[in-house]
Amino acid sequence: MRQGVQTPTLEDHPFFTDGVTWSAIGHYVEEGGRVLPAVGTYRLRQATAGDARLTGAILPSDPDDDLPEAPARWRLDVNLRLVLVGGDHTAWQAVMLIDDPDNGGRDAFWSWHSLTMGDLTGHFSAVGDSFLNQAFSEDGSYGLTECFLLAEEDEAYLVRGAVARDGQTIGAWALELTLAEES
């Protein structure tokens, strides 16, 4: 991606390759300052008609009925385990539905329902060898900001992010994503 790309699009980034899985390793810092090791995966694939249930749509029970159109272009599944004291862990999971890119392919909006933060809408934006992710909850009380910096070998990203509630940081993370597999 690095050579010859004047104005990169999201699809120029290896992250936005259909069927790709990225291994994640790093740490998460809680509101009180405790640092927790984090491991997991990010998996991107084309959204399907069945993903419509993530938007609250009720799918037909009769297999002869038409399914709705896919609610988005991509589906991003994020699964992270935060390792607690004593080796126990807690899971953090998200399923984001990402719309078709617009603005010349540089931007894409996404949605996600979080049990903690409610409905979030976000925006990926390609910026050179990085892409940014910014989101807010429906009521505006939660905000999320991330930067995905493509590493030199194009098979890894350095991710830095933070989440805030009412303007105060309640969590931050530093992850390295490495290409695990493509299907």
Short recap of the structure:
The chain is mainly β and 183 residues long. Helix content is 0%, strand content 56%.
Overall description:
With 183 residues, the chain is mainly β. The chain has strands at 20-30, 35-46, 74-83, 89-98, 107-114, 118-127, 130-137, 142-150, 156-165, 168-182. It is globular.
Layout of SSEs?
Blueprint: E1 20-30, E2 35-46, E3 74-83, E4 89-98, E5 107-114, E6 118-127, E7 130-137, E8 142-150, E9 156-165, E10 168-182
Antiparallel strand pairs: 1-2, 1-10, 2-3, 3-4, 4-5, 5-6, 6-7, 7-8, 8-9, 9-10
The major pleated sheet works out as: 10 strands, antiparallel, barrel
Shape annotation: globular
CATH architecture: Beta Barrel
Number of strands: 10
Share of β-strand residues: over 45%
Order of helices and strands: EEEEEEEEEE
Specify the oligomeric state: single chain
What share of residues is helical?
under 10%
Mean pLDDT: 87
CATH topology: Lipocalin
Give the termini separation: 20 Å
Number of domains: 1
| Strand arrangement, major sheet | 1-2-3-4-5-6-7-8-9-10
Q: Number of DSSP helices?
A: 0
